[in-house]
Specification:
Blueprint: H1 3-23, H2 28-54, H3 63-85, H4 112-115, H5 121-149, H6 157-176, H7 188-204, H8 216-223, H9 229-238, H10 242-267, H11 274-281, H12 290-297, H13 302-324
Length: 328
Amino acid sequence: MSTFLYMASLIGFLLLGIFLGRLCAGKEWVGRMLPRVRTAALWLLLFMMGISTGSIEGIMDMLSRMGIIGLASAILAIIGSVMLTSLLLLFPSPPAQTDGGTGFSHENETNAFLTGDDPHGLRRAWHIFKEPLLLLGIVLGGITCGVTTGGAWFDSRWISILLRFMMVLVGMLLMGQGIRFSHLLVSPRLLFIPLCTIAGSVGAALLLIPFTGGHAGQSMAITAGLGWYSLSSVMITDFGLPVIGTISLLANLMRETLAFFLIPLFGRFGRKTLPLALTSAAATTMDVTLPLISSNFGAASVGIAIYNGIVTSIAVPFLIPLVLGIGA
């Protein structure tokens, strides 16, 4: 399937989900069931992705190398994003927002987990990392299944079917959250952060070309997930690249993990470093890392964090097919 047809297919299923979301708006059972169905579909997708990867001959000898490339990809994506977003700090800052006195101050809300002041630090750490560890475990379980069974029974078309079902669920959930995209056009400065995140992440991945067989598109696809590891890894695998898909999963998982340490670090340097915190966390700023951003930069940072997460998340389904089409 060509890149254009693939993108059109995904967009079509996303729009179908948005349409169904409008039809089901206000129904309580939808709000209860959709997140559960999405979680189940995600787990099944990742398990099948693991099976597809485990079916590759000699995959066990490649796992350590895949982990190293994944970590290098995460670090490069963050560095590239932060370097480009640093240009934002060269422009005059707007008047400080007070937001009822909270503003972007973080002096009274330092991250207790990282400073060691929280007696329940281990509990917080588990709360932060349990989902990434669970998803990684599911993929490893799939790899084990693929290695032990040979994977001859597995049909990769199952991934394509389930991925499109996931796009419908994503569309329905977007409508259920009542997100208004028109606000993204209010300030060009607001859009500058996610654009730098995208360009920095994808551009820095060019340094990975020697480790992906000289294929620029595959190198850029690894970091084009922008922290959305569940969707990006499955999309890449659906292109017939299970190894690159697994590396992408690891890279974006590690990017999210590194963001939990970088956000409080940037927060210690004041509100001017908020763009750097947002760009390092990429798509996760609209959900997973949002509480940490709020606690380190104040309630006034929540709006721009959500915008950043929305724009980068929307870019992922379009970005991955585009970069994989390079040199194809």
